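Worked example

This section walks through a single chain of length 151. The input is the sequence exactly as stored; nothing has been trimmed or padded.
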Amino acid sequence: MVQFSERLKMFFSDLGKGRKMVLSTSENGRVSSRMMSVVQINGAFYFQTDRELRKYGQLISNSNVALCIDNIQIEGQCEELGHPLDNTDFTESFRECFRGSFDAYTSLKNERLFIVRPTFIERWIYSDGIPYIETFDITAEKYSYERYTGI
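Given that input, the structure is written out below as tokens.
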């Protein structure tokens, strides 16, 4: 348990406050992906979107989503939180990390804030050219770091 908690804390620290990530959503068997400006606050991921976009309908229909950046894949549960300006932690972080997007979109009437609570994280790490897979099963609070052998 201690190893899991400490490693997860280190992962979020390494990831940082704000990153552009690919968000994948699905509805009725149709999957779509797009780049999003995402901020990480206390181990959860936040983004905003317009409620008139297809992505919004997918998020409302199916709360299972995935985020991807570099060699990191994150699976999680997504939930709408209301208008972005109603969440001070989000607006401060988003303004700091993505000022242009904040200025252009955050105050628009149709914008909605979403949180992704991760359930599973996988990261590929290369050490001296050797691949390792680091996983965090957040639901089960299990951590693993294993060399990938392809067998």
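What to look for: The beta strands are 18-27, 30-41, 44-50, 64-69, 72-82, 111-127, 130-137, 142-147.
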